């Protein structure tokens, strides 16, 4: 099986390539441009992508590969926060393995991603939470969460959305119930992860 390893750190790339040998034929790329060229020239079945590629974002590569090469299986190999991994899954990645994985676990993930998704427990929990969050919050609750992400207090949220502070409080209570958290700081963290940018 042919595997492309995309990482901007030469030592990391070399270690992953060495760990995949001799079971897999591995190629290396250090940028979106070199990865795109390698996919065209080497026809890998699996592409391992780090999400932090220097000044570039691995999610951009994942999205391009998913659009231009839908038959290629994409596995995120990164130490990025789970929120970034979820974004990569949404962009078209088929799974995730952390850089702290053993060589045996990495090989198993590369083999497994050919047949289906590779979703470790911590990512599965996050994806379920994202799904519940997406499907259970009303449009107005999403508006309140967006305002919370911008650091607004309840009065500012009320002014921004042209509703009363009491209504904001009711929305926040509903959001807390649906997301399973009572602390405002945790709500703000969730809001920022979901509505950054």
From TrEMBL:
<feature type="modified residue" description="4-aspartylphosphate">
    <location>
        <position position="50"/>
    </location>
</feature>
<dbReference type="InterPro" id="IPR011006">
    <property type="entry name" value="CheY-like_superfamily"/>
</dbReference>
<keyword id="KW-0597">Phosphoprotein</keyword>
<dbReference type="InterPro" id="IPR016032">
    <property type="entry name" value="Sig_transdc_resp-reg_C-effctor"/>
</dbReference>
<dbReference type="Pfam" id="PF00072">
    <property type="entry name" value="Response_reg"/>
</dbReference>
<dbReference type="InterPro" id="IPR001789">
    <property type="entry name" value="Sig_transdc_resp-reg_receiver"/>
</dbReference>
<dbReference type="Pfam" id="PF00196">
    <property type="entry name" value="GerE"/>
</dbReference>
<dbReference type="InterPro" id="IPR058245">
    <property type="entry name" value="NreC/VraR/RcsB-like_REC"/>
</dbReference>
<dbReference type="GO" id="GO:0003677">
    <property type="term" value="F:DNA binding"/>
</dbReference>
<feature type="domain" description="HTH luxR-type">
    <location>
        <begin position="130"/>
        <end position="195"/>
    </location>
</feature>
<feature type="domain" description="Response regulatory">
    <location>
        <begin position="2"/>
        <end position="114"/>
    </location>
</feature>
<keyword id="KW-0238">DNA-binding</keyword>
<dbReference type="InterPro" id="IPR000792">
    <property type="entry name" value="Tscrpt_reg_LuxR_C"/>
</dbReference>
<protein>
    <submittedName>
        <fullName>DNA-binding NarL/FixJ family response regulator</fullName>
    </submittedName>
</protein>
<dbReference type="InterPro" id="IPR039420">
    <property type="entry name" value="WalR-like"/>
</dbReference>
């Amino acid at each position: 099986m042919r595997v492309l390893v995309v990482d901007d750190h030469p030592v990391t790339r070399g270690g992953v390539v060495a760990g995949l040998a001799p079971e897999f034929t591995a190629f290396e790329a250090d940028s979106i441009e070199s990865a795109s060229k390698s996919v065209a020239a080497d026809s890998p079945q699996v592409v391992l992508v780090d999400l932090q590629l220097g000044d570039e974002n691995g999610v951009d590569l994942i999205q391009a590969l998913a659009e231009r090469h839908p038959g290629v299986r994409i596995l995120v190999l990164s130490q990025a926060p789970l929120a970034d991994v979820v974004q990569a899954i949404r962009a078209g990645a088929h799974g995730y393995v952390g850089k702290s994985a053993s060589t045996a676990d990495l090989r198993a993930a590369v083999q497994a991603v050919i047949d289906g998704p590779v979703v470790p427990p911590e990512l599965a929990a996050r994806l379920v939470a994202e799904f519940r969050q997406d499907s259970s919050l009303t449009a107005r609750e999403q508006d309140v969460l967006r305002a919370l992400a911008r650091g607004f207090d309840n009065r500012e949220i009320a002014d921004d959305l042209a509703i009363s502070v009491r209504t904001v409080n009711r929305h926040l209570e509903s959001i807390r119930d649906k997301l399973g958290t009572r602390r405002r700081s945790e709500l703000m963290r969730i809001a920022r992860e979901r509505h950054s940018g």
